[in-house]
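User: Run a structure prediction on this.
Assistant: Running it now.
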Amino acid sequence: MPLQDLTPQLRTRLNQVERAVGWFVFLATALLLFGFGYYIYHTAERKGWFLVDAKFFTYVKDASGLNVGDPVVLMGFQVGEITGIAAMPPRTQHNVRLEFVVNQVNKNSKNIQPYYGYIWSEGSVVKLNADFLGKHWLEITRGTNGFGIYSTHPLETLSLEQAQSLPDPDRWRLAENIYDEKSNLMFRAFSSLAQSNLTRIVQLKSESILAFHAPVNVRHIAAVWNDAMQQYQKYDYRNEDETNAYELRFAEAPAIADQVQAIVAQVQGALPGILALTNKLAAVLDNAVNATSNLNTTLVAAQPLLANFGDISAQLRAPGGLGVWALGTNGNGQIQGALTNLNSLLANTDTNLNALTANIGLTLDNIAGITSNLNVQVQANSNLLWGISKTVMDTDDMVQGLKRHWLLRSAFKTKATNQPPTINRPPMKTK
């Protein structure tokens, strides 16, 4: 049915449906284009299409097993790939030139640090690794000293007047090495432009200073270090000049085949020593077998000795066993008889000693009686026998003193039944 034959109501509704369908198709197309664009952007970001490549090169002796596109590894992460392999012209110092780029970002870091930030002027070298299946790759070691080869700080050329009038000199850093007139390094790159350093720097520099503002960072490479000029220079990724690439030293390791050959040579050289060692071990084992055989014989011969030792120890554990083992079976009886005789001897000695002391006491008493009578006679005849009397009296005093002495007191004991009468001696007269 032609459109002009429709009623106005149907024509109006049909226009509304066409408009709605048009908007739906427009929105679907826009959403499809947005999703496709997001996918392309995410893929490009993941593969580092938006990142500026950090260009490096190195020289190797042999490019066997290496191909363009082989991975470049840093700390176990694939951070780039080989972009060029070329033989050097004849009569040059090097054989093969390898060109590679580092173009991936460390996404595990909170600040999304680029991997080329780990490649420094000192400590970073290139190594060639390979597995037994023939796969090769380049490995870059992390820098240990110096400063980064590539920088994200934009460079500024400051005149001496501008350097002295900086509002915040502590945040400015040198982008070059500064030497004195004798080529001695005075200030390294990344040294502060603080007033303490700036005075000396102005004296050493005659025109301008190459520096950068530390807080200012960009998301791409801004400068690359130039070893020949000893300073950073502006990085231009569109420039194919060699100054935009940095040469990393190649720490060439021996090939796997050479390493295997060296190991085989070492094993062959060590085989004579190993065989000699095995012969010595065999001799040692034979001696050990002989020693164990002799030891077994010794142990068999020592069994009676051990049995005798057991019998002796059993006898010693019995009561009186030590005396029986030392003196024999009759030794105990002999010792008992000797002790009995010794006891009788001691008893008789005590009795005889008592009788002897009693006899000595009687003798002394008789001597005392004689001296007493002699004393009476002397007192009666004192004029004639005064000297004798004096001697007797002294003797009597001595005897009485002996009777009172603690050591001889027991010798003068008298029995109560046979006690003699006490003689009362008159006092001695003196002239």
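The radius of gyration is 64 Å.
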